Amino acid sequence: MSGTVIFSKLIFIGALEQGFIYALVALALFLSFSILDIADLSTDGCFTLGCVVSAIMTVNGYPVLGLLVAILAGVCSGFVTAILQTKLGVESILAGIIVNTALYTINMAVMGFVANVNIFGCDTVFSKAKIFLPDEYYKLIIVVIIVIIVGVLLSFFLKTKLGLSIRATGDNVYMVRASSINPAFTITVGLCVANSLTALSGGILAQYQKSANIDVGTGMVTIGLASLIIGETLFGKRSIRVRIVGVVLGSCLYRVIIALALRLNIPADFLKLISASIVAIAIIIPYMKKKTRFLINRRVSKKEIENMYDQEDL
């Protein structure tokens, strides 16, 4: 099988489209996991929430409003998670699990207690913009524009006084409290923003694939972490702007890898294993680099000490 057949232009464009959609989840985890240092496990349910809300609004003829309502639903999810952590003393991991479990029922209720919602034949943000854009690239252009807007706004937000307070909260919550900044407020704002991005990603995906189902968010934490860690491995922890770009490119690279795996006839049931392996490898690489550098420096230092003793003996 030739290389062109294995990975065609159409497949590559599709991988990029999905990469930019899921990049919003990666940016959400960048904010909660990397900046706030909080393991938010409500991501799966929040993604599904945005997906089903957007689908229902689209069915009723409001695709653009559907994305806005999805964002608002994500904010509500993040707010509940934050309240459990900051006001009720629930650990971050447990708070995420509780909210994620509750969201399953909420998502089913939004869908009318059916497992799937189809929006074929309904206008979406993609079909509305298609008349102004090239047929082959209109979906890619739309998701790129959305991600660029979100990335610029997030970069600007994290450089404001509130954004700097959120970053400081993740670095040292005790120092923030000593500086008369309320960490409960910064954590709440950070989680609301992060979950709004997750829900927006789900909302866009619903209109992109013209359907929503109750299990669409399963494994979204793993996908987001894979994209996040790939980006941080490639670009390192530099400026906020560079890190945001790295997260987005990491998401695209992850989707390209998954698309390539599918084209190599790897069973779809193995994709979760591949995702977990990518996360593990991306985490191990920086550690191995650091350990290798340490061993090399130790060997050099040992040689220098031996040479010094040899010179003294002479």
From TrEMBL:
Alphabetical UniProt keywords: Cell membrane, Membrane, Transmembrane, Transmembrane helix
Source organism, top-level taxon: Bacteria
GO molecular function, one term: transmembrane transporter activity
Membrane topology note: Multi-pass membrane protein
Main location: membrane
InterPro entries tied to this protein: ABC_transp_permease (IPR001851)
CC annotations in GO: plasma membrane
Subcellular location: Cell membrane
TM spans (from-to): 6-31, 64-84, 93-117, 137-158, 184-206, 212-230, 242-264, 270-288
Protein name: Putative ABC transport system permease protein
